[in-house]
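Schema walk-through. Below, the input block comes first and the output block second. Nothing else is stored per chain. Lengths vary across the set, and this one has 218 residues.
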Amino acid sequence: MKIIQPSVEFITPLNGPAVIERLEQCGRVCYKSEDRITQDSGIKFLKGIIKSGHEAVLEHCSITVKFICDRGVSHEIVRHRLASYCQESTRYCNYSKEKFGREITVIAPCYLEVTSNQWRTWEHACAMAEKAYFSLLDQGCTPQEARAVLPNSLKTEVVMTANIREWRHFLQLRCSEAAHPQIREVATQVLRGFYKAFPVLFDDIYMETVVQPREDIK
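--- output ---
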């Protein structure tokens, strides 16, 4: 059994200037103010768009992100309906095969100390689930049948494509104090990447979550 940390990968290149340019071009159609576009007018325009709540403009750009997380977190991710998804399937992936290292991979729970009794209990439970999974395969079960004993901590990969308006909604919910610590762990990684590429689109969310002193965000 392999234990790994969660992570994210930006499949869409985060080209800030290109995104700002496209959103401004689309948004100015509403006001027929295309003649006011200059080399640096986009940031001011989009600040006004977000402040006024006219976020439909932000739907004209989409970004694709791959999450490497546990199955429990993936169930929360795919509840965001205004997005498209592809996910690693336990129906078809047979973790006894060589390409998976003949083992299952699980995501380390960020809320447990590695040296604690809770961690040891969690690790033991995952190891027992792995043993039961391989036993069922050995007894003739298919992967989709044997998966019934796999833990929520099982690593999965989820590709999510959403427009920027929906990403803002996703991050407002999943980076908040009320979110589950494991989804907040990956959501803040997405937010940091977005903020670095185009801060004007995520500055308000970034300032409300990541910037504030928080012991659970590194």
